[in-house]
UniProtKB/TrEMBL annotation:
InterPro entries: ClpP/crotonase-like_dom_sf, Enoyl-CoA_hydra/iso. It holds the Pfam family ECH_1. It comes from the Bacteria. Belongs to the enoyl-CoA hydratase/isomerase family. The lineage of its organism: Bacteria, Bacillati, Actinomycetota, Actinomycetes, Micromonosporales. GO terms for molecular function: catalytic activity. This is Enoyl-CoA hydratase. It comes from Phytohabitans suffuscus.
Amino acid sequence: MNAPVLLERVDRVAVVTLNRPEARNALSAALLVDLFEILEREAASPEVGAIVLTGKGTAFCAGADLKESADEMEAADFWAQRRRVTQSQRIHLMLPGCPCR
């Protein structure tokens, strides 16, 4: 299985790529966890001056992975749904204040 998020550093730029082109880079639970961890680490690194967020394939990001979300709803997995929403919110709140230098 491919990593849902890729990281490449070019000089002081961290290029973070959503890597689910078959799903138009929809935000799955695994992608959200990896994305948050990578963004948090790279934003805190003194070796990174900028972060570029991009998507592999023809789309940047289709939004939430509705198939995975529907599966969770069908299974009545409230906690999985809550984890996904919380992780998404953490990313959205982090991005504007990203302390890259």
